[in-house]
Structures are given as C-alpha cells and as structure tokens.
Amino acid sequence: MIALLLLQAAAATSTATPAWKLADRTNAAGVRSISTSVTGNDGLSRFVVKCDVGTESIVSIQFIQPQSLGQGADKPVAVRFDGGPAFTYNWQFPGTGTYITDPVAITRLTTFLVKSKTLRVESTNGAGFAVQANFVAPASDAMVRQVLGVCGYTLG
Predict the structure, then answer these.
(1) What percent of the chain has pLDDT over 70?
(2) pTM, 2 dp
(3) What ranges do the domains of the chain cover?
(4) Quick one: pLDDT at residue 3?
(5) Which CATH architecture fits 2-150?
(6) 127 in helix, strand or coil?
(7) Which of 8, 35, 110, 135 is the most buried (most CB within 10 A)?
(8) pLDDT tens-digit map of 34-71
(9) Which parts of the chain are beta strand (E)?
(10) What gap in Å lies between CA 29 and CA 103, rounded to an integer?
(11) In the β-sheet with 57-64, what is the strand arrangement from edge to edge?
C-alpha cells in the first residue's frame, strides 16, 4: 500500500520538461523562416526566437498565448531570467501574441536566455489584466545561435 502511494507521488511529480524545438521552413514565395521555441509550463503559451529571411532578414522574439493579448499600440513586456530583475521593452501587439524586433533587445534577451535555466514573461492583455508565463531556458545555445546566424546575427 505504501509502495503504491510512493509510486503515485513519483508519477505526479515527474512531469516532462518542455523541450526546445527547431523549425526551418521555406514557403512558395521563397521566404525562409527558422525558429526555436518552447511551450510554457502551463502547456499553452510559447516563447519563440525567430528569423524570417525574405527581401530583408528580420529576427524577432515572440510570446504567444492561447487567448488574445489584444491588438493595439506597443506596450511594455518584462522578461525575467532565473527570477532576476526584469528586462522591460516595448513590444508590438498584433493580436494573439506579442513580439519585438529591436536589435538591442534581441541581443540582450538572447544572451541572457542561453545562460539561464528559466524565464518568465510578464505583460497585460487588451483589458489591462496581468498575463504571465514561465518557461524553461534551452539546455544549450546551439539552436538560438543557429536561428540568429541565419539572419546574420551573432549571439552576445
């Protein structure tokens, strides 16, 4: 009986750590899109580092939620690594998710991302309510370097 309870407790605490994934696609128009992403600890939100190569190369960091964050003007999004201080930048809000393309922000956020174990994204939705999600950081910098490299960025 005790052994059964211990097995149940171990099974309940051994949830799989979300893994970072790499996706590399080229559409019919010849636009290449490469990204690395992870699903949040909530199982729904996603954190993405992406490079789109068309007539110009654009790197973005994206925070995607299952519910709409609201479409509107740029507003602050805070990213914390390993529970540390927030790096806050104004991100664009086209609807379901939010993203940033500022090269200074991309450099700082990716540099801390690959040196961390966890990250937390904090913002508000269109109604002004707090939205936050927690993620595991990548186990190595390889996929982030690969994505940035396609767009001509270097990590750090």
Answers:
(1) 89
(2) 0.87
(3) 2-150
(4) 42
(5) Sandwich (2.60)
(6) coil
(7) 135
(8) 999 999 999 999 999 999 998 899 999 999 998 889 99
(9) 21-26, 32-39, 46-53, 57-64, 72-81, 86-93, 97-100, 118-124, 130-136
(10) 26
(11) 21-26, 32-39, 46-53, 57-64, 97-100, 86-93, 72-81, 118-124, 130-136
